[in-house]
């Protein structure tokens, strides 16, 4: 996964950079069938007025574009919560695009169209 980190009015320490790389490696491990250069993540961290921080995570995947925008008081809080939210989005993406890795492997049978074809009126 290609990682781009940019910051504005914020110094990103080596520990914060290591934490970002660790979280990105966790995200890339959830997408095992993806080539290294196929996915790209942009991390934009910006200091706001009154000691708060804004982060924007943009993950470009084949067929989808996942984004997270958050405001928090500290850099650690904003990194942790934003990557947790992006992790949930990646899990949802994985279930939609990689059916064999889904938690519900036969979930096509519970869709509304299949129930309608079985004669059940679900409304």
Automatic annotation (TrEMBL):
Gene3D superfamilies: Ribosome hibernation promotion factor-like (3.30.160.100). This is Ribosomal subunit interface protein. It comes from Candidatus Daviesbacteria bacterium RIFCSPHIGHO2_12_FULL_37_11. The lineage of its organism: Bacteria, Candidatus Daviesiibacteriota.
């Amino acid at each position: 996964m290609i990682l781009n980190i940019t910051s504005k009015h914020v110094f990103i320490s080596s520990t914060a950079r290591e934490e970002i790389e660790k979280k990105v490696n966790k995200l890339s491990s959830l997408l095992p069938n993806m080539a290294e250069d196929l996915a790209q993540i942009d991390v934009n961290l910006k200091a706001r007025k009154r000691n708060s921080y804004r982060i924007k995570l943009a993950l470009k995947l084949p067929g989808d574009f996942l984004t997270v925008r958050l405001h928090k008081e500290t850099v650690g809080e904003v990194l942790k919560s934003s990557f947790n939210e992006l992790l949930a989005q990646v899990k949802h993406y994985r279930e939609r695009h990689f059916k064999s890795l889904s938690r519900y492997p036969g979930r096509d049978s519970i869709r509304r169209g299949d129930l309608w074809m079985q004669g059940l009126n679900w409304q």
